[in-house]
Amino acid sequence: MKFKAEQIAGLLDGEIKGNPKVEVFKLAKIEEAAEGSLTFLANPKYLKFLYSTKASIIIMDSNFIPEQPLSATIIKVSDPYKSFTRLLEYYNEVKMMKSGIEQPSVISESVQYGENLYLGSFCYIGCNVKIGDNVKIYPNSFLGDNVYIGDNSVVYAGVRIYSETQIGRNCIIHSGSVIGSDGFGFTAEQDGTYKKVPQIGNVVVEDNVEIGANTTIDRATLGSTIIRNGVKLDNQVHIAHNVEVGSNTIIAGQTGIAGSTKIGINCLIGGQAGIIGHLNIGNNVQIQAQSGVTKSIKDNTSVQGTPSINHSDFHRSYVHFKNLPKIVDDISALKRQHEAESI
Q: Where is the UDP-3-O-[3-hydroxymyristoyl] glucosamine N-acyltransferase non-repeat region domain (predicted)?
């Protein structure tokens, strides 16, 4: 698809310097842009590419004055980075303007769906599923019985949503994710084997949640595993049964959270963190990458390490750890000196 400079300027409330009819058909970084590309300049670090770029349109700060003539058409805006982000959002919306039901797909007769549904080929939609308006479900996805998906949500290719799962509005679920699989529950038998505990709860994902690729969220044993409004989960995160993740919390990739742990609002959890079960993590908590959390954490706390301790204590301790060989040598020298003086 092609866009003219005047169309882009109108969308961004920008001022055009150059040819308003020039067209672009792709977005690019300023150092890689070719003819027909749209790019932006926000970071002074990339100023050196301004006069050599082949881009047809450049978005830049309204206060910036080029030192040399530019061949590209300029669109001046108050905040180039935010304006370019807005364009990316618009481009993505246009690209995803799909609707209709592709075949082959298997759709139960009891399914209810709203306007502008897009259902890709080779999807399976179970009994009593309810789907809101403007929902996009890409090919090879599975929705079990009694699943609900709210308005404007996107389910990318190859997602598996088990029965009874509730997905809110404006959610994004990336490819390979599994929502509602059984929680990890077993009882030990007298003969040394393990018997599976039925997992009869569900998963509730509230509004404005994004779930990364190959992330797994287990259904509750009883009740619900709950992902609250605005949560963002990275790729390959595991949320176990009966966990609750508070609003606007962000969890980076390869993090694992064991069963029945409650996480507060506005938390930041770094990649590869591990949190054991049945803990209470407070609000505004920061858990640094690769931390192992073995006890509950109070509000407004930052922790690091395995087992995790206060973030500042960890850094003070690490200084001593790095100096441990020297400290041991000093102690050994003092010991030898003491023994010599005792003779």
A: 22-89
For residues 71 and 47, membership in a common domain is answered with yes
Q: What would the two tokens of residue 246 be?
A: 């508070």
**How large a percentage of the chain has pLDDT more than 70?**
99
Given 95, 115, 145, the domain boundary residue is 95
Q: Which two tokens stand for residue 16?
A: 């055009």
For residue 37, the enclosing domain spans 3-95
* Total domains in the fold of the chain: 3
Is 104 found in the same domain as 48?
no
**Model-level pTM greater than 0.90?**
no
pLDDT reading at 343 higher than 70: no
CA 269-271-221 angle, to 5 degrees, is: 70
Structure tokens that stand for 232 in this block: 């963002």
The confidence band for 242, taking pLDDT boundaries of 50, 70 and 90, is: very high
297-330: pLDDT as tens digits: 999 999 998 777 687 777 777 777 777 788 888 8
Tell me how far apart the alpha carbons of residues 89 and 66 are, in angstroms, rounded to a whole number. 28
Per DSSP, the three-state class of 122 is coil
111 and 214 both lie in a single domain: yes
Same domain, 143 and 284: yes
Q: Which of 238, 241, 278, 311 is catalytic?
A: 241
Say if residue 151 is in the same domain as residue 284.
yes
Q: Is the peptide bond before 66 cis (omega within 30 degrees of 0)?
A: no
CATH number, domain at 140?
2.160.10.10
pLDDT tens for 171-200 read: 999 999 999 999 999 999 999 999 999 999
Residues contacting residue 99 through CB under 8 Å, at least 6 positions apart: 116, 117, 118
Under a CB-based contact definition with an 8 Å cutoff, are residues 275 and 294 in contact?
Answer: no
